[in-house]
Amino acid sequence: MMPASKFPLLRDNDLIFGRLLTVDEPHLIERYNKAMTAFGLKPTKLKSFQIDRTGFSPEIAEECGADYLDPNEVNRRFIILTPAQISLPVVHTAFSNTSQLMFEFMTKNQRAIDALTIKDVIYGEIEDSVSKVEDIEDLLSINQVEFKVLSAEDVLGKAAELGKMVDRLKQEPDAWRDDAMLKRMVELAKVCGDIRENALVPDQVIFRHNAYWTSHFGGLYVFIDPDVTTVISDPAAPGFRRSRPWQVSYLSIRDADAVFQFLASTGRIELPRASWIEQSGYLEHRAEMIVRGLIRDAEPDRNLSDVDKIWLQTWIHGHADLIARDGNFPFLNAAKREINQLGQLRIEDIAPQQRFLVVRARPDHPDAWLTNRLISDFVPADFVSRYIFNKQGFYRDYEGFSQAWRSHVVDVLKTTYLKDKAGFRARLYGLTD
To answer: Pfam families, from UniProt (predicted)?
Structure first.
């Protein structure tokens, strides 16, 4: 993840590290530092910083390194100061499902988190079955994760100790005569409160590790179906086609045809049909993104602050040869006409790479966001889709943009997606969450 200070335009427009929670109360900063110390890290000297759902802070990352909560890109650390973190995004992670895992953990253990964070900070690791990822087999061996939960003042441990003493009082008739135990129970109750009312110990800490993208080996996808697990990555990734070939299907991310066939055969994509294409404006959006990408390639330093649809049409007419050579804009126009006439496209007649221009993830599939992320890898010119579903890819692209193009990209995102995120996702991608 890039440091926010390196790209102030993104930070100023909430396009990087947006919607984070500000931590500026001394007692919360003190608690955060206790967790940092427990991780073997130096306490922060900042008087104010922001955190995401996992407790990651961009400001502290600039102090002690971007991976301070993710040192080996596995067994992710977390710091919970407040239950309010559940509504925050996750802005730095090596696994795309970290956000969902944190959400499930905080949802399933809401009562315990509410009670604990009144007096303490919760921290720990999302522990996988491996300590370091060296090849694909290491990734595939992760079937579930366990939240290893600690608290700085050991409220968790004290609650467990108090619970055992309460059980002893109930089960042993003469236990009430043990003055030392009763005195200890009073001391513990001052810290833990009435544990019969306050659930201080998390109920569920083990969660399923489902389909995901990971930053390992240049970016790798894992999709899980009842009979087979499918890995999509660069074939150069260590373990590609060597790890469990009898139960794992391996696809090169450079093989557009194989990837498309996989997504279609497993029901993860919606093929181009009038039922959703005509009302969504999807093809029009793709066409506009294609043209904007051609403008960037042809004139990377052009000032595009006053660009509107009329200007774009004029540019298209003036660069007909370039448009024709690229082929994608004419293809999308032809696709729109065919869908209007026939209600669908004959997908088998379309070149594999261009198929990704006219499909989207099936909105009701559990892997919809992950599938849209994969599709965005095949349509890099659509920086809006890339930003929504594949922020790591977007930020990487952004680093190579000219200053003029960066300004243009930010303007487009502000006037389209940021204006109404939920509405935009619902209209173009059919997503309701």
So the answer is: DUF6638 (PF20343)
At which residue do the structure tokens 């469990």 appear? 244
89: left (phi over 0), alpha (psi -120 to 50) or beta: beta
Neighbours of 80 (CB within 10 A): 28
What is the amino acid identity at position 107?
Answer: T
How far apart CA 327 and CA 196 sit, in angstroms, is: 69
Q: Are strands 122-127 and 144-151 parallel, antiparallel or unpaired?
A: antiparallel
Per mean pLDDT, which range of 3-7, 114-118, 356-360, 422-426 is the poorest?
3-7
Enter the tokens of residue 68: 């301070």
Query: Which two tokens mark 156?
Result: 């968790």
Task: Classify 360 as helix, strand or coil.
Answer: strand
Q: Give tens-digit pLDDT for 210-268.
A: 899 999 999 999 999 998 999 999 999 999 998 787 789 999 999 999 999 999 999 99
Picking from 48, 250, 307, 223, the residue whose alpha carbon sits closest to that of residue 135 is 250
φ/ψ region of 149 (left if φ > 0, alpha if ψ in -120 to 50, else beta) reads beta
CB proximity list for 153: less than 8 A, separation 6 or greater: 119, 120, 191
CA nearest to 85, candidates 48, 57, 51, 114? 51
For residue 118, name the pLDDT band (cuts at 50, 70, 90): confident
Torsion, CA 378, CA 17, CA 114, CA 149, rounded to 10? 70
Place of tokens 């900042």: 46
The pLDDT of residue 152: 75
| Single-letter residue type at 96 | S
- Residue 344 is given by DSSP the state B
Task: Write down the domain spans for the chain.
Answer: 4-153+200-209, 255-429
Q: What is the pLDDT of residue 196?
A: 53
In this structure, are strands 144-151 and 206-208 parallel, antiparallel, or unpaired?
antiparallel
CB 113 within 8 A of CB 80: yes
d(CA 344, CA 341): 8
pLDDT at 180: 84
Res. 165: pLDDT tops 80? no
What's the residue count for the chain?
433
Give the global pTM.
0.87
